[in-house]
Amino acid sequence: MRLGLSGFTSRAGLAAVAALFLPLLGAPAGHAAPASPASSASSATVAAPAPAAASFAASCPAAGTVSQWYSATHDGVDIANAVGTPIYAVGSGEVIASGPASGYGQWIRILHSDGTVTEYGHMYHRDVSVGQHVTAGQRIALMGSEGQSSGPHLHLRVRVGTSTTVRGIDPVPYLRDRGVSLPCTPGGGSGRTTVTAWAEANVRSCASTGCAIVSKVYAGQSYPANCWKTGQTVTAEGYTSDKWVELPLNAGGVGYVSAIYLKGDATGGVTRQC
Ligand SMILES: [Zn+2]
Fold first, then answer.
1. Which of 67, 87, 106, 130 has a CA-to-CA distance to 140 between 20 and 30 Å?
2. Cα(143) to centroid of ligand 1, in Å?
């Protein structure tokens, strides 16, 4: 199911571009740390990695088995299943291509808010057209075996930016950073969502103010969130809560922030309990 769609005329060219992108693996574009507030006594002495701001909570692209992983000779992952298996948008965004494509038979490309593009190939039916806005988990196509393909599967490629010639990044860490591990179950997901802080607050290694500060959240910034749990009761800013929300950290691992500092309901809009 190898796909040689476009972009490379020589092994040397491929290696050069791969090397260019290797440092990005595991830390795709869009993970820039939020700007620090101009002044804050409570944050002055803490140099902590930021949570994974500005990425989005991904949805499972399709049910099936991974029949081919990303490699030097395969720019994407193949998810194999029966013809007609639904294919879903990995994240919300704008459809920038939908139609016939060399090698792919048909393809769909979606530009996401963090500047990454997800690319879907080989489907026999497409639901969306160029210019359309789609939401994460929205059905966009049905799986097929069109184009250069040896059996029904989805070829999922991820590129940084809208170029159709630059080599893609590994979709596995890209999806994992956004809460989806392959193979995945559509709609099942990880329960991951997004929270928005309304005040600056510390992110700690466990759900207690006695735990180490591992990061911070900033007013008005949104962050991916995994789940909520009950922890130490905190009183601050006129509110009391024992709910803490687990956030994935850019540096790996997770941290916890008191739900007091998050917009929304008692758990900051996070429905899944840890
Ligand atoms: Zn493929």
1. 67
2. 13
Tell me, what's the pLDDT at 191? 52
What superfamily would CATH give domain 11-23+58-177?
A: Glucose Permease (Domain IIA) (2.70.70.10)
Taking the centre of ligand 1 as the mean of its atom positions, its distance from the CA of residue 169, in whole angstroms, is 13
Question: pTM (2 decimals)?
Answer: 0.55
pLDDT digits (tens, 9 = 90+) for 106-118: 999 999 999 999 9
Question: Is 193-261 a domain of CATH 2.30.30.40?
Answer: yes
Instruction: Say whether 213 sits in a helix, a strand or coil.
Output: strand
Question: Could you read off the pLDDT of 52-64 as tens digits, one per residue?
Answer: 444 788 899 999 9
Q: Residue ranges per domain, the chain?
A: 11-23+58-177, 193-261
